[in-house]
Amino acid sequence: MEKDIYILGIESSCDDTSAAVIKNGILLSNVTASQAVHEAYGGVVPELASRAHQQNIVPVVDQALKRAGIEREDLTAIAFTRGPGLMGSLHVGVSFAKGLALSLGIPMIDVNHLQGHILAHFIKENETDNDQPEFPFLCLLVSGGNSQIVLVKSYKDMEVLGQTIDDAAGEAIDKCSKVMGLGYPGGPIIDRLARQGNPEAYTFSKPNLPGYDYSFSGLKTSFLYSLRDWLKEDPDFIEHHKEDLAASLEKTIVDILMKKLRLAAKDYKIRQVAVAGGVSANNGLRNAFHLYAQKYGWKIFIPKFSFTTDNAAMIAITGYYKYLEKEFCPIEAPAFSRVTV
Q1: What is the pLDDT of residues 91-136, one digit of tens each?
Q2: Which residues of 88-121 are buried (b: 16+ CB within 10 A; e: fewer)?
Q3: Quick one: 226 exposed, middle or buried, by C-beta within 10 A (0-12, 13-18, 19+)?
Q4: I need a labelling partner for 157 at 20 to 30 A (CA). Which of 144, 195, 234, 273 fits?
Q5: pLDDT digits (tens, 9 = 90+) for 170-210
Q6: What is the pTM of this model?
Q7: Ramachandran category for residue 277: left, alpha or beta (phi over 0 → left; psi -120 to 50 → alpha)
């Protein structure tokens, strides 16, 4: 009888401290502690984030093990986010993973945060959960820091076909939300307002880039200048039109994202198409995926809301597949802040 494989996943790349346990590819627990302290600053403050990780990591890991019904000694390996992310935040998770792995005498598995988002589609919550993409598939990876179209050939073979040359989609949403005085993080606020607005109310600049690359800086500038002109005529313009502004902004961003994704799917003759990352929680983008599925015969894969944001379940499942390939990490491996998939 083969021994059960228990993987502990640790995620600390930004402002969420998360730990998860996976047994033989099935998720047993996924615990996340978020940090509300950054809302007052309109963005994540790296120093505050790393301090909060130091406070949260022990209780979060403890809870993940308790909910999984196992002891530390049952663990087979520890998977951790090595990067990209905020260096101070990453150091907390990496150092904890190293210390725990050393104390238990078990292997360490380093995980690329972006690959983790893509492989979140392979998280199984029970034995009968078999709705996963088939290789090769395309994945639109959209978050606050990344906007990429990735050709996923296998669990460990991924090729970036296109990516943003400036701002990411999530970054553009957050900045436009900030300009409107709506608060941080902007994504959920814009999403909520957009549901009540007219997406055709306003038009904003769209880039005309060749290939599969994205650009959102022109849209951001167009939004800013348009808003400035409208506010001259009506100082209360934002308050009177925030729903329509949010809906029009969201539609423009979704149109930009989907146009390039459709081009890549057509050129590579791929109909298995997934979305991942924090912006994949956006309802406008999810609706567009369903529309494109009907129009172009795509089989689409949209993650549960709990797997769109930074979470350790995606790190644990990536670690599980790397464990099967015996892809372990040396104890001296440092964290890294920037890289693509």
Answers
A1: 999 999 999 999 999 999 999 999 999 999 999 999 998 899 999 9
A2: bbbbbbbebbbebbeebebbbbbbbbbbbbbbbb
A3: middle
A4: 144
A5: 999 999 999 999 987 899 999 999 999 999 999 999 998 99
A6: 0.93
A7: left
Contact 280, 185 (CB under 8 A): no
**pLDDT for residue 52:** 77
Cβ-contact 43, 173 below 8 angstroms: no
- Are 317 and 29 a contacting pair, CB within 8 Å? no
Residue with tokens 């957009």: 194
Instruction: Name the 3-class secondary structure at 267.
Output: helix
Domain architecture of the chain: domains with CATH: 6-129+308-324 (3.30.420.40), 137-304 (3.30.420.40)
Sheet of 6-11, strand order: 26-33, 17-23, 6-11, 77-83, 108-112
Q: How would you classify the pairing of strands 108-112 and 77-83? A: parallel
Please state the separation of Cα 92 from the chain's center in Å.
20
Q: How far is CA 310 from CA 13, 34, 79, 273, 297, in A?
A: 8, 10, 15, 21, 30
Q: Which two tokens stand for residue 202?
A: 């306003």
